[in-house]
Amino acid sequence: MSGPGGRAALALQLLLLGLPQARPRYEPTWGSLDARPLPAWFDEAKFGVFIHWGVFSVPSFGSEWFWWYWQKEKREPYVKFMDANYPPGFSYEDFGPLFTAEFFDPNQWADILKASGAKYVVLTSKHHEGFTLWESKYSWNWNAVDVGPKRDLVAELATSVRNRTDLHFGLYHSLFEWFNPLFLEDATNAFNTSKFPTSKSLPELYEIVTKYQPEIIWSDGDGNAPDTYWNSTGFLAWLYNDSPVRDTVVTNDRWGAGSICAHGGFYTCSDRYNPGRLLPHKWENCMTIDRGSWGYRRDARLRDYLPIEDLVKQLVETVSCGGNLLMNIGPTHDGRIAVVFEERLRQVGSWLEVNGEAIYGTKPWRAQNDTVTPGVWYTFTPKEGKVNAIFLNWPVSGILELGEPQAKPGETQVKLAGYKELLKWVALGEKGMVISLPQLTPQQMPCQWGWTLQLTDVD
To answer: For the chain, how big is the Rg over CA atoms in Å?
Structure first.
């Protein structure tokens, strides 16, 4: 059997027999790599937790960009903080041994992550400071096994997450390092030399994929260098073709200057990206519970932490518009998830216990938000054919008017998630419908902060 027709017939026979066909090979070009379908689990997951943890958690002042703001930009609050609290000549490297993680209990972290309702977690394996949370062969004496905790923090959390939860485990990795001499030398050469990616950044990426098999590679920090300097397409071709996670791994869009919001797997576009409209490409809103920092801050005030109402609102808006929400916490230098972060995560989890059917595995509906009543966002559950109307404000009148769904008399059913009885409604034709909500005491409410109406047989 030869020729195109013969090969097509053979492929059809293999398909009918259920035999696996050869997987596609991706070329190290954006045209080829961008054509790879995003593994389905990521869109279905909807909600993940970001963890920013590193040596910056020791000063835990101002921002995880502490080293840069103190030494490079010499911002006054950071200089004053160091002058007031540390002896002359104290260097950022001296914070390394103080990153102790003595209270780090990966099982406890995994249990909190599970309780949050998140379906994936992304840990900073290495931030721009260059300190690796694993025993890297390429970060001698500046990693968590040689300095500080004397523990492989990546391995421990990966093991606990996989043993105790159904979350997908992912790793953040910074391409550049602020003060690495090899990177600074390449930058001086206008990135016409590539000593740093060849000897440091790329070997680390291959190392974490091979050792820990993360299902998310969350790249960041291009240092204003193009993707050709980082050889991002070469790494991604290996990741998609030959790595141990080639079938399930997802990646973001931060692979070199000009790639963000244009190339890669899902798009992040910017930190705290929340466009409020449907986008044609899968995207993620990575945001922080602490408005002012990704890393833990000892100087944070209660007002700096987003309340649970805002977090639910961000989750609902993001998912309605086709995105995933990646909600960040910053643990302490001694390995604790601060109780304010734990409380917020558990609150989100309790809300998802009631309303998860309107979030997980959903698709965007024809309308993202309601045209009549503000604070109403829609998702669609394909399996049951249900439209979910998530409303963030319970009307005092007990009557909710929806301008988008068009009800069918005698067919449409309306249910409040977490409440047993069907709700009464009146059709307004093309102008939508009016729904009568049950009269409930606060104790009878199925949840707080936002509620889901499940609509069946509506247009």
So the answer is: 25
Residue with the two structure tokens 């466009």: 275
Measured between alpha carbons, how far is 207 from 244 in angstroms, rounded to an integer?
Answer: 12
DSSP state of 221: -
Backbone dihedral angles phi then psi of residue 208, each to the nearest 5 degrees? -70, -30
Distance CA 238, CA 33 (A): 11
β partners of residue 325: 47, 285
Q: How many CB atoms lie within 10 A of CB 339?
A: 8
- pTM score of the predicted model: 0.95
DSSP characters over 268-316 = --STT---SS--SS-EEEEEESBTT-SS--TT--GGGBPPHHHHHHHHH
- Band of residue 1 on the pLDDT scale cut at 50, 70, 90: very low
| Sign of the alpha-carbon dihedral angle for 325, 326, 332, 337 | positive
Q: What share of the chain is helix, strand, coil (3-state, %, to 5)?
A: 35, 20, 50
User: Number of C-alpha atoms within 13 angstroms, CB side, residue 219?
Assistant: 34
Tokens of 318: 């993001």
Helices (H), ranges, 172-242: 181-188, 195-196, 202-212, 227-230, 232-241
pLDDT tens per residue across span 320-329: 999 999 999 9
Q: Which residue has the higher pLDDT, 164 or 272?
A: 164
Place of tokens 């869109």: 43
Residues 6+ apart with CB under 8 A from 5: none
- Percent of the chain having pLDDT more than 90? 93
pLDDT tens, position by position, 158-181: 999 999 999 999 999 999 999 999
Query: How far apart are the C-alpha atoms of 296 and 109, rounded to whole Å?
Result: 16
Q: Which amino acid is at 128?
A: H
- Does residue 2 surpass a pLDDT of 50? no
* 24 DSSP 8-state letter: P
Residue 456 reports pLDDT greater than 70 = yes
How far apart, in whole angstroms, are the C-alpha atoms of residue 269 and residue 253? 8
